[in-house]
């Protein structure tokens, strides 16, 4: 197993500086995908790449969204020969002391998607917390399971071959709708799911959220609706395939 960190980034260069310093102790390469930040942030990223030889910055020409940046990061990691990516946000919300827990889970089952299960402090806005509960309910409905306890947490270990199967075969969202859709589609293709509880600090110093309440909730609603129709369309053929694959009661009694 060959693992790197993957961080999507947009206009969080100062917060990212602290994240990079905290990741250095783990001795893993890091790919930062800048999603069309302005000149000041790009200059800061260039300085960081010069300081840390294990850091590569990939620059996207326009701000297309977190999902677009992650897909670029997954592809770049595979190009460099990595089999797994440990995905971390750039804004210092994630407790990086939990990195060893994710790495241990990834080593135990290299085929698994390892999802962070957030434990929030008092800084979490109530509107965002309630919105999360709606997403959790929708994902349980779409997967007919509780395998994905929180579809929005960006702290996750990703098996890259399975990830590329998802993003190469389907059209996935490019913004905040990507993380939950990706988790759902990974579960649909029978990727094992592991879960790690992790503390989330919702409002670190200098944090500016890129989650736009109206736009991104609309995108999430449209995505869940689209996946519901996809599930309904494919369910009959899936059930038929399972029925054909299962031996009949008479056949099971034959010697």
Structural class by SSE content: alpha/beta
CATH fold-level assignment: Spore Coat Polysaccharide Biosynthesis Protein SpsA, Chain A
Name given to the CATH homologous superfamily: Spore Coat Polysaccharide Biosynthesis Protein SpsA, Chain A
The largest pleated sheet is described as:
7 strands, mixed
CATH class: Alpha Beta
For the secondary structure, the number of strands is 7
Oligomer kind: single chain
The portion of residues assigned to helices is 40-55%
What CATH architecture do you see? Alpha-Beta Complex
In short:
With about 260 residues, this protein is α/β, with parallel strands linked by helices. The protein has 9 helices and 7 strands; from the N terminus they run βαβαβαβαβαβααβαα.
Which terms would index this structure?
7-stranded mixed sheet; 255 residues; alpha/beta; 17% strand; 49% helix; Spore Coat Polysaccharide Biosynthesis Protein SpsA, Chain A
Could you describe the 3D structure shown?
The protein is an alpha/beta fold. It has one domain (3-253): Spore Coat Polysaccharide Biosynthesis Protein SpsA, Chain A, CATH 3.90.550. Helices cover 49% and strands 17% of the residues. The protein contains 9 helices and 7 strands, in the order E-H-E-H-E-H-E-H-E-H-E-H-H-E-H-H. The protein has helices at 13-23, 39-51, 66-79, 99-108, 126-143, 160-169, 178-188, 213-245, 249-253; strands at 3-9, 30-35, 55-60, 84-87, 113-120, 156-159, 193-200. Strands 3-2-1-4-6-5-7 form a 7-stranded mixed beta sheet, sandwiched between helices. Helix 1 links the parallel strand 1 (3-9) and strand 2. Helix 3 (66-79) packs across helix 6 and helix 5 (126-143) runs parallel beside helix 7 (178-188). It starts with a strand and ends with a helix.
């Amino acid at each position: 197993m060959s693992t790197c960190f993957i961080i999507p980034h947009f206009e969080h260069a100062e917060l990212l500086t602290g994240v990079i310093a905290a990741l250095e102790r783990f001795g893993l390469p890091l790919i930062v995908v800048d999603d069309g930040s302005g000149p000041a942030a790009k200059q800061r990223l260039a300085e960081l790449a010069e300081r840390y030889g294990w850091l590569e910055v990939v620059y996207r020409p326009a701000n297309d969204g977190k999902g677009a940046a992650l897909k670029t990061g997954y592809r770049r990691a595979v190009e460099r020969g990595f089999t797994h990516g440990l995905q971390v946000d750039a804004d210092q919300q994630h407790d990086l002391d939990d990195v060893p827990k994710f790495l241990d889970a990834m080593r135990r089952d290299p085929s698994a998607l390892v999802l962070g299960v957030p434990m929030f402090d008092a800084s979490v806005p109530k509107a965002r917390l309630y919105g999360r509960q709606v997403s959790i309910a929708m994902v349980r409905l779409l997967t007919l399971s509780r395998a994905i306890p929180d579809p929005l947490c960006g702290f996750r270990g990703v098996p890259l071959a399975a990830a590329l199967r998802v993003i190469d075969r389907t059209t996935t969202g490019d913004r905040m709708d990507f993380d939950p859709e990706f988790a759902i589609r990974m579960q649909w293709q029978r990727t094992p799911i592991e879960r790690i509880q992790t503390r989330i600090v919702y409002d670190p110093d200098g944090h500016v959220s890129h989650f736009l309440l109206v736009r991104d909730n609309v995108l999430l609603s449209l995505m869940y609706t689209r996946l519901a129709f996809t599930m309904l369309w494919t369910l009959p053929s899936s059930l038929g395939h399972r029925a054909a694959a299962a031996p009949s009661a008479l056949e099971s009694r034959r010697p």
